[in-house]
Amino acid sequence: METYVREAYQTKSDEFKAKVSENQYVNSEIVPLIKSQVNNLKRELRDAGMQYMSGDPYLIAQTQYRRMSPDFRKYATVKFIENNGRSPDGSNTADLQEMIQLGKAYKEAIR
Fold it and tell me: How far apart are CA 52 and CA 47, in angstroms?
């Protein structure tokens, strides 16, 4: 691909070449393509991971909890302790799910 883009640059006018270097031209063509390919791969990996986890409530809860912002996680932890009189157990699916609900409720309340 890079060779093709470099060859395409050589067909450009001298005026164009005076304003845009070969590396600038190649980077402007190649970098967005590479970023797009990487993003597509990440999306595919994320989708595959979610399908893998779809049968395990603990993995789903753990992933949802990790995706909450740190502020909402802190709030959920404090509320959990307030409601249950104990610290949440990160290896307990029910505790994670309760904290997710607390975080989501707080997020909705402050909107």
Answer: 9
Contact assessment for residue 31 and residue 2, using Cβ atoms and an 8 Å cutoff? no
Q: List CB contacts of 33: < 8 A, sequence separation 6 or more.
A: 1
Tens of pLDDT, residue by residue over 43-85, are: 887 777 666 666 788 888 888 999 999 999 999 999 999 999 9
Closest of 60, 64, 99, 95 to residue 79, by C-alpha = 99
To the question of pTM greater than 0.70 for the whole model, the response is no
